[in-house]
């Protein structure tokens, strides 16, 4: 992302906060995996959104109207000995020169410097509860300032959560962000295609997961979440990540996998037959889910309600399951009673961006919000018939989900993950090639 993109975001936040405010946002903390071994560091999405900075032990401070500099970063200083073990750091100079900060200070000096920045501010924008240790330090700084300022003087008197304001900004993606998600989706599509073609009955699910990870890592990307590779009845488990079973010759395989590339996530699901050919029952369920996804995508445009794609998908699934005899009764009544939820228990999508389940409100003033240009989200209807379902045995254990990443455009929408085949014929053709 271009440096001016981050600078513009910071200006937007300061404009929202006002001249009497201070905005304080810490980086993500390091997490210990085992004893002295840390998990790979992943920056806080909010912090990355405003800085592009990917190191731990940092705090962004925005001080609107401050003459000596409004945009400050407390960060790790250069340390040749530690860098010899853990790699290079941007340091104080790098924070200014590479990341566009007005000024930067060693993180070890924050206890001395930050209280003075709080002194003439009446409101503190900070989200409490995400990092309790940092919250406690911030409260101590505020109390320190209050104890030295007369009651009639200016001091921080109000804490305001940064989440709502910042997350509303993150909900709307600019052209650069949409292209970043598109690049992530293209990489994820390549991984899905590789796994489809590699699949053979008798393989282990984790072997297919390795095909996905190979594509991600060779592109210097990470999985956006733990890949789901569910064969047979495992496809009916929504968040199945064990990936430890052997793939049967008659199994459908559901792969839900996305990449994280340049900070942005993709999220794609495809379901295909391990043998390369759908059975009659598998094809029937698959066609219902595909029709539901098509109906949902066709309704996406500015001004449509967020709930509208889900309603279109749920109605289509209800009608299809009634036609197959898996639901009983009039389709309109079954839909009104939400009978479909027995086999389609989740919503049809979620926001997508820096996080797989990205930030942003789905409802505004109690109503489903309207879709607008720049929103990006998934469309992922599914039908899952557990092995113990009270249906004819031939349907049991079939799980199908189809998921794509959709950007709302001025005229309608754009499918960012269309490189992976969706139709039965296209899937079978790809697997046979």
What does this structure look like?
The chain is α+β, with helices and mostly antiparallel strands and 433 residues long. Helices cover 37% and strands 18% of the residues. The chain is built from 13 helices and 21 strands. It has helices at 3-17, 45-51, 80-86, 91-97, 110-118, 132-148, 163-171, 175-198, 205-218, 280-298, 308-324, 331-336, 424-432, and strands spanning 21-26, 32-34, 37-38, 59-62, 71-75, 103-106, 123-125, 158-160, 222-223, 228-231, 252-257, 259-261, 264-265, 268-273, 363-364, 367-368, 376-379, 382-385, 398-401, 404-408, 413-415. Strands 6-5-4-1-7-8 form a six-stranded mixed β-sheet, with helices on both faces. A three-stranded antiparallel β-sheet has the order 9-12-13. Strands 10-11-14 form a three-stranded antiparallel β-sheet. α5 crosses α6 (132-148), α8 (175-198) packs across α13 and α10 (280-298) runs antiparallel to α11. It is elongated and about 75 Å long. The two termini are 38 Å apart.
SSE topology:
Elements: H1 3-17, E1 21-26, E2 32-34, E3 37-38, H2 45-51, E4 59-62, E5 71-75, H3 80-86, H4 91-97, E6 103-106, H5 110-118, E7 123-125, H6 132-148, E8 158-160, H7 163-171, H8 175-198, H9 205-218, E9 222-223, E10 228-231, E11 252-257, E12 259-261, E13 264-265, E14 268-273, H10 280-298, H11 308-324, H12 331-336, E15 363-364, E16 367-368, E17 376-379, E18 382-385, E19 398-401, E20 404-408, E21 413-415, H13 424-432
Parallel strand pairs: 1-7, 5-6, 7-8
Antiparallel strand pairs: 1-4, 2-3, 4-5, 9-12, 10-11, 11-14, 12-13, 15-16, 17-20, 18-19, 20-21
Helix pairs in contact: 5-6, 8-9, 8-13, 10-11
């Amino acid at each position: 992302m271009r440096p001016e993109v981050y600078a513009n975001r910071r200006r937007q936040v300061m404009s929202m906060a006002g001249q009497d405010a201070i905005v304080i946002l810490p980086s993500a903390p390091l997490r210990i995996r085992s004893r002295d071994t840390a998990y790979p560091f992943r920056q806080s999405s909010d912090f990355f959104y405003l800085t592009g900075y990917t190191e731990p032990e940092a705090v962004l401070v925005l001080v609107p109207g401050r003459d000596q500099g409004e945009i400050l970063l407390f960060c790790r200083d250069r340390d040749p000995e530690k860098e010899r073990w853990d790699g290079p750091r941007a340091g104080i100079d790098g924070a200014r020169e590479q990341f566009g900060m007005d000024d930067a200070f060693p993180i070890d000096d924050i206890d001395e410097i930050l209280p003075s920045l709080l002194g003439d501010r009446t409101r503190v924008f900070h989200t409490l509860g995400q990092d309790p240790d940092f919250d406690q330090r911030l409260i101590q700084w505020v109390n320190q300032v209050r104890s030295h300022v007369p009651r009639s003087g200016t001091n921080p008197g109000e804490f305001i959560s940064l989440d709502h304001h910042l997350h509303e900004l993150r909900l709307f993606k600019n052209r650069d962000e949409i292209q970043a998600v598109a690049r992530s989706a293209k990489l994820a599509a390549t991984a899905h295609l590789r796994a489809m073609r590699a699949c053979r009955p008798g393989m282990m699910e984790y072997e297919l997961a390795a095909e996905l990870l190979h594509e991600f890592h060779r592109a210097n990307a990470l999985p956006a979440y733990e890949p789901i590779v569910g064969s047979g009845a495992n496809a009916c488990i929504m968040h199945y990540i064990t990936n430890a079973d052997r793939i049967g010759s008659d199994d459908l395989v559901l792969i839900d996998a996305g990449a994280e590339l340049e900070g942005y996530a993709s999220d794609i699901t495809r379901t295909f037959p391990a043998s390369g050919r759908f059975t009659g029952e598998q094809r029937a369920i698959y066609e219902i889910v595909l029709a539901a996804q098509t109906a949902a995508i066709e309704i996406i445009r500015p001004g449509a309600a967020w709930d509208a794609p889900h309603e279109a998908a749920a109605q289509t699934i209800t009608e299809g399951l009634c036609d197959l005899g898996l639901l009983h009764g009039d389709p309109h009544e079954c839909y009104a009673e939400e009978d479909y939820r027995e086999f389609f228990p989740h919503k049809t999508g979620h926001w997508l961006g820096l996080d797989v389940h990205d930030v942003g409100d789905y409802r505004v003033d109690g109503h489903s919000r309207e879709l607008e240009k720049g929103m990006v989200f998934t469309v992922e209807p599914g039908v899952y018939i557990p092995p113990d379902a009270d249906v004819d045995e031939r349907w049991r254990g079939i799980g199908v989900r189809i998921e794509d990443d959709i950007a709302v455009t001025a005229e309608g929408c754009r499918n960012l993950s269309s490189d992976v085949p969706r139709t039965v014929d296209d899937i079978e053709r790809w697997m046979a090639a």
